[in-house]
Structure formats: C-alpha cells, structure tokens
C-alpha cells in the first residue's frame, strides 16, 4: 500500500510549497475532554487519528540531522472510503461498513457516480452549506467523513471545508425600521461586494462600512447574485403580513401524523424565528410529503398557493385537503388549463403558471392575485425557469419546497438554495424503510441484446438517434411480458418515454395506456380503477414520473427513460414506496452494449446513494431479482 501523502516529509509544519499548515482545531467528544485529532499539522493527507506522542523528543530532533527515515503511514484498512485532494470520495461498495459510511456521507456530500464496485461522492459548497443549515458544523463534516477514511482527509480538503463553512452566515439580510439591510461580516467584504458588477448594481446606499440598503424588489436578486459569487445569504428579514386562515389537521381521525412529518413542519417554521419560513424538506416518495405541506400550512396560518406538477397532482392535493383537514371546500380553488378559480388556498400547475404567449407569461400574475402568506413548491426539483424568476420577487412570502431529491439535471441546485431556501429537513430512504413507513424495493437491471435488424439500424444511425433506437428496441417486449407473467397478481406499471413503443406494448399486453394526450377525466377513471384493484396493469408515459398516487402498485418495469435522468429514476421507484406487506419489485430493461446501458448507470446514481442496489441479469439467465 502506498504511503499517505506527506508521510516521509520533515515534520517542520511546512508543505511542499512552503506554506505553513494551520493548526488542527480541538474536537469535542461525547463524555468530556477534547482530542486534537483532525489531522497531522504536517500532513496534507494526514490521518484523523491522534498523533502518537514521541517517547523521546531528542530522537525526533536527531532524525532531522541524519538521513530521513521512511515513516510508516497511518493507514486504516478497515475503513471503506478514500478522500482525495480534489474533494472526491471513493467508497468501496462491497465493504462491510459501506451502509454505515453512506449514511455518514449523506448530509455532507453528493453522489457523482455509482458503478458496481466503487462509488464516488463529492464535497461541494452547496452540500456543505445545506449541512450547516441543518445545524451541522465544519467539525462535524471532518469527524463524520474522517472516521471512515483509510488515509485521513487531505489538508486541502479540510481547508476547503473550513473555507466554505466560513462563508456561511457572513452575509445576512435583515429588516429595520426603514427597510432591508444587507450586513457583511467586515468592511473588506462590503468593499468586495461593491466592486463586483453583478452585486454592486443591486446595492443601495451604505448604512455603515459593513452594510447596505437593499430595495425589497431586489431581495431575491441579491441572494441569487451572491450565491453565484460564492456567498450564501442568511435571510432573516422576515415576511410580509398575509391573509390569515385557520384550520385543523384531523390527526387521529383515521390516520396518525408521524414523528418525522411533525418534526419537518416544526423545523421549517423554526418556532416563528425570522430565519425560518423558507427552505426545502426532502422526504422519499410515499413518505407523506403532502401531509407535511398541510401541517406547515396549519403552522403558518396564512393563505397559501400550492404549485404542483400536473392536473392529476392538483386533484390529489385537493382530495388530501378534503380528507385530512377541516378546510371547507369553498376555500379551496384550482388554477389549471381547465379551470381558474383563485381562493384562499389555490392549487395550480407549473405548466399553466409558466405558459408563455407572445413573449410574456400572463399567468405569473397569479402569485400576486391574493396576499398569499405561503407558497408550496411540490416537486421543487422540477421548478421551471419562469417560476424561478417570479420567485426572485416573492422573497417576502414564506416558501416551502417539497421533494424526494434535490438533484437537478440542469445544475441549478444553487438557485433552489438561493430563492427557495436551504435544506431544512431530510430523512434517508432506508431509515424510513427500516421503520416500515415506506415499502422495501428490490431493483434489477435486465440487459437485452438487440436483434440483428435493430443492431444494424443502431450502428448506422447518428448519435442523436442511437439512444432512441436502443431504448425502444422490440426485443424488450417479450421480456416485459415474461416479467409480468411471473408475478400475475402484482399491480404493475410499465413506464417509458416513447409513445410509439408504449402503444406497441399496450396492444401486446392488452392493457390501458396513459400519455400526456389522454384527457384528464379518462386518466382519473383509469387511476381509480387501478387503485380499487379493478385494473392490474397500466402503461404510462412521462406522466408516471410525476407526482402520482397509486399506492397499490408493487411492480414497475421501466422500458425507456430520459437519458441519464436521476430524478426520473427516483420518481419511478417512488411509485412503489407506499407501505405494503411484501417487497416491491423494480425492473429496468436496457439494451446491451448501447449508449442506453451507459445512461442506465447514471440514472441509478441517486438510488445507489440512498442505499438501493441493482442486481444485473442478462436475458437467457433468470431475470427475477
């Protein structure tokens, strides 16, 4: 095994470039006492273990005068991960302590890749800032990550974590008797912001050498600009008065609020503190995010605008409000393509709100149609760009994001942080599975070779066409039929993105197909029949990747997906997570030796982060998990 970086250097406190490494801070440990154990001050890649005291100081000095010895690195082979100087973290997926390490990493790092043997995580500013917003500290990051590291944490990574953490809370937005004030930690930072064009144009008159007036219209814009500049803003400016409403969640009347649901709502509200009232709650599909939204609405006690992904999701919210609260029906309105009724509680779709006509967005006025005191963004990871822009001007309104994953394929996670708020609460999927709040799921990737004709088409197609040819391969049809035949009693969903492929499958399987063109009334009839057990199978296009409540589903077969979308994979598995007596089954059918197989690995990353593992079967071998 190679020695740790720096293991053979002289212990004079200087690194290769001559820079003096900062001293390690003390670490409080449960039970009293402190351990100065984060790393060796002389090591860029030192261990988290305490430096053993030298039994004879004279012996240490004598080594400096003679030949430099080869020191034994502090190496812990029973630890499952390696932290590298670029912030990447390599985790042995077969290590006995893998699950423990994954749970320790989850609050601080994001999963980048998850192939069969070694998973790669990465520490980033956003991941660290979200951890700090949850009450963690930079020292927590170092201890929780470092206790699983084989070679400790490189000094540059420790320095980066400290640097990112030091930026958190250094810029604060507050309200005084005059208006909004942006306060910086020191005069130098204030001068820096005044010289950066993107932020300087949004700053008002100086209040003192560390503070500036901010126009309320620019409250979101300044936070947006500053996070792009590398500084998260702690928004403690509070919220405007809103139209009050009062209602009761019917806890104990046919259902019981779970402890994590109540904790999520209370954490968001922060007991009325100015730092509460904005942020994101991350819970798995099937864990009751809608009920968390209702508890938050009850806690805030103000008129509410709820934004959902589809007309079906709007209807689900309306039904949940009716079933779980005492809110009268005449206080709830829906704002969709079919009906536009604005009430104290209004539920709208993203598609209508972001509809563009003649270069303008006519329905964005909905945000100001009433004095809403809370905006709930369901599936906030799908928030479209026009709604982002409108949200920038709604910073005086409480904002709650609900999602199963903060992963955004467009890289706009920092926009969610700046404009909706930081992550306020999350629970790992596997934790809720162990408590039987969501169903267990076994995942299997079934690899199917292309037939000779399709292989020839694939080889002669351009890159843009190859993925669709592979994903919609007719060779998959027989595999789907076989999987359904093996478990005929399971309520099953067949999920894909290409309508021609889904029409072919629906005809072969003799079951209904629902696409974006299916009228809403017909959709509801089919969904209701599936929920009641009158239908055992449904074929769904992209509508199956959105918020959709089909609690009886226990088998899902994915025949095509949107390239490497991690969001989509998580949402599809989420269709199976409603608690049930048996383990649910999720199959993803991919074409062997094609770019679809490569995309499948990317799609599976988020679920691997949550602790799900895919078995891999080739056609011709057993395909059951």
Number of domains: 4
Coarse structural class: alpha/beta
The biggest beta sheet is recorded as: 7 strands, parallel
C-alpha-based Rg, rounded: 27 Å
- Compute the separation of the termini in Å: 37 Å
Corresponding CATH architecture of the largest domain: 3-Layer(aba) Sandwich
- In the CATH hierarchy, the third-tier topology of the largest domain is known as Rossmann fold
Major sheet: arrangement of strands: 14-15-13-16-17-12-18
* Low-confidence regions: 1-73, 621-625
CATH class of the largest domain: Alpha Beta
Sequence-ordered SSE layout with sheet pairings:
Layout: E1 27-28, E2 34-35, H1 57-65, E3 81-83, E4 88-92, H2 98-105, E5 109-113, E6 118-123, H3 125-133, H4 138-146, H5 155-167, E7 171-175, E8 180-184, H6 187-195, H7 197-200, E9 206-208, E10 211-214, H8 219-228, E11 233-235, H9 259-269, E12 278-282, H10 289-300, E13 304-308, H11 311-324, E14 332-335, E15 345-349, H12 350-353, E16 374-378, H13 385-392, E17 398-403, H14 413-419, E18 423-426, H15 429-434, E19 441-448, H16 452-460, H17 463-471, H18 475-486, E20 492-495, H19 499-509, E21 513-514, H20 520-531, E22 537-540, E23 555-558, H21 566-574, E24 584-591, H22 595-603, H23 605-609, E25 614-618
Parallel strand pairs: 7-11, 12-17, 12-18, 13-15, 13-16, 14-15, 16-17, 19-24, 19-25, 20-22, 20-23, 21-22, 23-24
Antiparallel strand pairs: 1-2, 3-4, 4-6, 5-6, 7-8, 8-10, 9-10
């Amino acid at each position: 095994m190679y020695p740790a970086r720096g293991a053979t250097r002289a212990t004079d406190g200087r690194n290769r470039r001559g820079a003096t490494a900062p001293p390690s801070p003390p670490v409080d440990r449960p039970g009293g006492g402190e351990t100065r154990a984060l790393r060796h001050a002389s090591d860029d890649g030192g261990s988290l273990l305490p430096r053993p005291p030298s039994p004879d100081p004279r012996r240490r000095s004598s080594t400096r005068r003679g030949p430099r010895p080869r020191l034994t690195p502090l190496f812990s082979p029973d630890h499952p991960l390696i932290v590298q100087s670029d912030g990447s973290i390599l985790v042995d997926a077969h290590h006995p302590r893998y699950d423990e390490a994954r749970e320790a990493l989850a609050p601080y790092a994001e999963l980048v890749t998850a192939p069969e043997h070694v998973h790669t995580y990465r520490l980033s500013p956003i991941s660290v800032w979200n951890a700090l917003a949850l009450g963690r500290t930079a020292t927590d990051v170092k201890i929780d990550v470092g206790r699983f590291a084989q070679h400790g944490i490189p000094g540059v990574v420790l320095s980066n974590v400290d640097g990112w953490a030091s930026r958190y809370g250094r810029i604060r937005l507050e309200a005084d008797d005059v208006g909004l004030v942006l306060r910086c930690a020191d005069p130098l930072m204030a001068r820096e912001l005044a010289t950066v064009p993107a932020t300087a144009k949004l700053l008002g008159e100086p209040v003192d050498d560390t503070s500036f007036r901010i126009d309320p219209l620019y409250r979101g814009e300044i936070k947006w600009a500053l996070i792009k500049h590398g500084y998260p803003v702690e928004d403690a400016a509070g919220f405007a008065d809103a139209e009050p409403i009062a209602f009761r969640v019917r806890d104990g009347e046919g259902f019981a609020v779970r402890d994590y649901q109540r904790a999520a709502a209370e954490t968001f509200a922060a007991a009325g503190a100015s730092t509460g009232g904005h942020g994101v709650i991350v819970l798995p599909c099937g864990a009751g995010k809608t009920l968390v939204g209702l508890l938050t609405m009850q806690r805030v006690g103000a008129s509410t605008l709820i934004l959902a992904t589809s007309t079906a999701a709007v209807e689900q919210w309306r039904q949940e409000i009716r079933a779980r609260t005492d809110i009268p029906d005449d206080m709830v309105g829906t704002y969709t393509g079919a009906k536009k009724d604005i009430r104290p509680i209004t539920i709208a779709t993203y598609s209508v709100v972001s509809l563009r006509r003649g270069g303008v967005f006519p329905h964005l006025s909905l945000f100001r149609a009433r004095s809403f005191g809370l905006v709930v963004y369901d599936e906030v990871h799908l928030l479209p760009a026009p709604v982002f822009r409108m949200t920038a001007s709604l910073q005086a309104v409480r904002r709650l994001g609900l999602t199963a994953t903060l992963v955004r394929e467009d890289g706009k996670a920092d926009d969610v942080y700046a404009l909706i708020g930081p992550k306020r609460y999350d629970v790992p999927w596997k934790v809720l599975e162990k408590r039987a709040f969501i169903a267990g799921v076994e995942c299997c990737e079934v690899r199917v070779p292309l037939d000779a004709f399709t292989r020839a088409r694939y080889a002669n197609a351009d890159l843009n066409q190859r993925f669709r040819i592979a994903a919609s391969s007719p060779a998959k049809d027989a595999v789907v039929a076989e999987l359904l035949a093996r478990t005929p009693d399971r309520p099953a969903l067949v999920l894909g993105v290409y309508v021609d492929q889904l029409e072919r499958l629906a005809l072969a399987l003799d079951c209904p197909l629902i696409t974006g063109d299916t009228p809403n009334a017909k959709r509801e009839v089919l969904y209701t029949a599936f929920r009641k057990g009158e239908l055992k199978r449904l074929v769904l296009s992209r509508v199956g990747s959105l918020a959709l409540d089909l609690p009886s589903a226990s088998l899902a077969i994915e025949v095509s997906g949107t390239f490497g979308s991690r969001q989509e994979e998580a949402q599809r598995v989420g269709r199976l997570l409603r608690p049930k007596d048996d383990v649910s089954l999720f199959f993803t059918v991919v074409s062997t030796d094609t770019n679809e197989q490569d995309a499948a690995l990317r799609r599976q990353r988020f679920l691997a982060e949550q602790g799900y593992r895919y078995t891999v079967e080739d056609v011709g071998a057993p395909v059951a998990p």
